[in-house]
Amino acid sequence: MIERVEVDFSAEGKEQLKREISNNKEILNIRFKGRTVILLVLIEVLLLFIIYFTEDYGFSAIFKFLLIVPIWMIIMITFLHYQKRRPAKRIFNLYSHYLRQGKYQAIKVESDSCEYYSDDLFDYFLFNVRPKQFVLLRQQDFEFDTEKFPNNCFVIPPNELLDVIGNKIHVEGNKIIPSKSTNSRMPRLASAAEVLGKG
Q1: H/E element holding 17?
Q2: Neighbours of 155 (CB within 10 A)
Q3: Neighbour count for residue 127 (Cβ, 10 Å)
Q4: pLDDT, tens digit (0-9, with 9 covering 90-100), for 112-143
């Protein structure tokens, strides 16, 4: 069985949310003033006009290069500024929402059987939830107690909160012994599996 369950934030989790919100708010408070934007646009237009009017002169190639550098710098500064603002705004809104709610949705998985796979890079647990429904976990994406996991009932934190609450899997049931399976069987099962983790 796979179901979504609501989990309350711990006091430490709430404090971490507040810190992340504060850090991202500082980024959002750094803005280009309207006058700065207008000035940058005017400088770019002026430089483009200079390039246009010196097109017929012999030194135009060198002149163009010298003028394209500041144009490129203005574009890159603007681009990097907004590239930093976009994720900061998304995280600020997301974490503010979670802080208001005081809880988050996690995924609870219940399964009586587990298969273990390993390749050259990663280790995988494939849980059979019900006929033709599987959950695939990549071991390296999560932290768990090896004495209790794999387990027949566990809760997985959501990806978007891993920076706040961590990537620890919380177990609620009993440990199960995974059966080791061949890699050739895994792709067929994994194609029908719900993959939980960072990807």
Answers
A1: helix 11-29
A2: 16
A3: 26
A4: 888 888 877 788 888 888 777 788 888 888 88
φ, ψ at 109 (rounded to 5°):
-120, 130
Amino acid identity, residue 158?
P
- Cα–Cα distances (Å) from 181 to 25, 51, 118, 190, in that order, read 48, 67, 9, 13
Torsion sign across C-alpha atoms 125, 126, 130, 133: positive
Does 183 or 5 have the greater pLDDT score?
5
Instruction: Dihedral sign for Cα 134, 138, 142, 148, please.
Output: positive
- In what helix (H) or strand (E) does residue 94 lie, and over which residues does it extend? helix 60-101
Q: What is the pLDDT of residues 5-38, one digit of tens each?
A: 888 888 888 888 888 888 888 877 776 665 666 7
**How much is the pTM?**
0.62
* Non-local CB neighbours of 93 within 8 Å, separated by 6+ positions: none
